[in-house]
Amino acid sequence: MPQNGTPFVLVIGAASIDTKGRAGHPLQTGTSTPGAIRMSVGGVGRNVAENLARLGERVVLLTAVGDDQSGQLIMEQAQAHGIDVSQMLVSREYRTASYLALLDETGDLVMSIDDMKINQKLITPQYLYRRRRFFRDAQLVVLDANLSAAALRTLFRLAAQYRKMVCADPTTAMLAPRLCPHLTTITLITPNAREAEALCGVQVQDRDSALTAARRLREMGVQIAIVTLGASGAVYATSEESGHLPAVQTEVVDLTGAGDALTAAVVFGLVNDVPIAEAVRLGISAAALTLQCRDTVCPTLSLEHLYDQLVL
């Protein structure tokens, strides 16, 4: 735990090993397509934690990994970036979570499979309650939706008990509805178009409908709603303002992790009292930097690079 009362962000969610295959030619079903396959550490919660650490924030990560090589790699990599993993569970019963993604020749995600059951089994209400002092001492709490419904209920109760802001990444359209019972207590939520539809029922097809979705999420209780639109940028809505911010034009190498980088940069903005429009711009800049990288988290991410990207 950060020493001497040092401020920190508490991140709760998945840590995994990502395996990503990018086709070198148009994909054909039922046969092999030449391309490149790459492995890296991932998991939405872990990705957000690393991005925040690279931006200079102290981070405590609550997650679970298996007692295997993948789990050891995740722990070592997190420690190397200064993330506090002292409360991470290491299981001999469950294997480390994994994520398998298939990308087409342009880098767009075609389909993916995730194996995150370790989070459902081990990130329990009891695990969170026994670590309630981290909720008490954190600046704010960040979560991903890989947690079980019971764990989410405990998380939100603890955050409310200690009057902490909660920032939520919906993770996938399938998992996003788990957050619906808690929208009135979420400070920040960062869905993409499909996740926004799953949360509020508004079909997102363009900028205007995305803004409608963001405003609907505000009406449902969220304080800050940001709907990401890929190459079209992002829209946001608060009780005082709403708007659209364009994407930073960049070469797309890999889409994986871009949304997590945006979430982390906006959280950084909240922690440091950055105006919301500027915080969203930082998030868009972080996403653009991540799109240029083959790794799930951009290895050159820094606050200086975020602002340099905005100037460009």
Task: Record the SSE blueprint.
Elements: E1 9-12, E2 16-23, E3 35-42, H1 44-54, E4 59-62, E5 64-66, H2 69-80, E6 89-91, E7 97-103, E8 109-115, H3 117-122, H4 125-129, H5 132-137, E9 140-144, H6 149-161, E10 165-169, E11 188-189, H7 193-200, H8 207-219, E12 224-228, E13 234-237, E14 242-245, H9 258-271, H10 276-291, H11 303-311
Parallel strand pairs: 1-4, 1-9, 2-7, 5-6, 9-10, 10-11, 11-12
Antiparallel strand pairs: 2-3, 7-8, 12-13, 13-14
Summarize this structure briefly:
This protein has 312 residues and is of the alpha/beta class. It is 36% helix and 22% strand. The chain has one domain (9-169, 248-311): Ribokinase (UDP-N-acetylmuramoyl-L-alanine:D-glutamate ligase).
CATH architecture classification: 3-Layer(aba) Sandwich
Strand order of the largest sheet: 4-1-9-10-11-12-13-14
- Largest sheet, if any? 8 strands, mixed
Overall pLDDT level: 93
Which runs of at least 5 residues are low in confidence (pLDDT < 50)? none
Number of helices: 11
Query: What is the helix/strand order?
Result: EEEHEEHEEEHHHEHEEHHEEEHHH
| Oligomer description | single chain
What's the number of extended β-strand segments? 14
What's the Cα radius of gyration?
Answer: 18 Å
